């Protein structure tokens, strides 16, 4: 079976609902970073994948220095420079650090390391911009359906009862390995963890920005480092 590319899973998905959600997410991400990053600033994208977001950002803001990092995917856009790890990024050199659709796949120690790196590499007035999937509320049904269509299977990691629980906000158990699943992920738990070290300046939801979160499929947080005593 042919491997499905990142673009085919997201912005070029054959499912019109999934395609709309991912393209809207990409547009919101680009608009938010454009507003947060000063002229000739630096943006680092953690979990950049093949670099599609940074490529789109570079088209909108050619003045920005683009740096990507991804442990599992190779870059495909020559204008994007990749760092082997965030350890190689100079302290207080980054205006915006982004992490889009990544934190839901991190183990606790990896999330802790990401937040440590963010505190180290961001400028004093820099911003950490995170987006994660909303796995509770109305979006869960089309998301599960999309996975089934994409895998050409009637089976899903969610049972029918778990889909109903997720729709009404009842907790669903997360698998021990978060690498390849979104099951049971709750953005509110992540928000609490991030909020211990960062001031959450603003939140946004996509693709229905002016409605309650449980109608949308993605959750964005703009975070600023708290001043240390």
Describe this structure in words.
The protein is of the alpha/beta class and 229 residues long. It contains 7 helices and 7 strands; from the N terminus they run ααβαβββαβαααββ. It has a single domain (6-225), classed as Vaccinia Virus protein VP39 (Rossmann fold, 3-Layer(aba) Sandwich). The protein has a 7-stranded mixed β-sheet with strand order 3-2-1-4-5-7-6, with helices on both faces. Keywords: Methyltransferase, Transferase. This is Methyltransferase type 12. GO terms for molecular function: methyltransferase activity.
CATH architecture: 3-Layer(aba) Sandwich
Q: Fill in the CATH topology.
A: Rossmann fold
- Residue-averaged pLDDT: 90
CATH superfamily: Vaccinia Virus protein VP39
What is the share of helical residues?
A: 25-40%
